[in-house]
Specification:
By secondary structure, the protein is mainly beta. The chain has one domain: Beta Barrel (Porin). It is 10% helix and 67% strand. It contains one helix and nine strands; from the N terminus they run H-E-E-E-E-E-E-E-E-E. Strand 6 and strand 7 form a beta hairpin. The chain is elongated, with a radius of gyration of 19 Å.
């Protein structure tokens, strides 16, 4: 998928958001699946999605190092019209890194150009707390959560178990 197709798809979601959504938000998310900027789109019943992503790109001589990850979260918020909203959901993420890697071979460090990738999937449970609310209904939310899932990491083996996350969003 080319970058222009991804941008066109994201802009299409944003255009439809104003028509079908009760709440939109943008902010930061950090959890065991992914970390980065987040965009939220919720219906009036509290069902919705969140897209999380981040990318780092560094020129490295004649090669390009990068670190990219993305996460899609599907949520159901209960009591969406209250200040403290309980939610359940699920998330799936993908990460890919291309850079120099090194390891000790007994005599010296050996360097190699490597591409690594992984996926993670988790069930989510938490609260979405409106910390500051304006007269027009917009506000700042804090979203602590616990997770149970399958995770892959850059320098570790895969892991199945609990995890935690926190998010901060401006919603309107």
């Amino acid at each position: 998928m080319t970058c222009s197709k991804m941008i066109a798809g994201f802009l299409s979601v944003l255009c439809l958001a104003g028509v079908i959504s009760a709440e939109q938000g943008i902010g930061l998310q950090a959890d065991m699946i992914g970390q980065g900027l987040v965009y939220r789109l919720l219906s009036a019943s509290g069902v919705g999605i969140e897209m999380v992503g981040r990318v780092y790109v560094f020129p490295s001589g004649n090669r390009l190092e990068y670190n990219a990850r993305g996460e899609l979260r599907v949520l159901k918020l209960f009591n969406p019209d209250r200040r403290v909203r309980f939610f359940i959901g699920g998330g799936a993420g993908y990460w890919r890194i291309q850079d120099w890697d090194y390891y000790w071979d007994g005599d010296d460090y050996t360097y190699s150009w490597e591409t690594r990738w992984g996926t993670s999937v988790a069930a989510l449970l938490g609260f979405d707390v409106i910390v500051v609310q304006m007269e027009d209904g917009s506000g700042l939310t804090l979203m602590p959560e616990v997770q149970l899932g399958y995770y892959t990491f850059r320098y570790e083996d895969m892991w199945i178990g609990p995890g935690v996350g926190i998010g901060l969003r401006y919603v309107w």
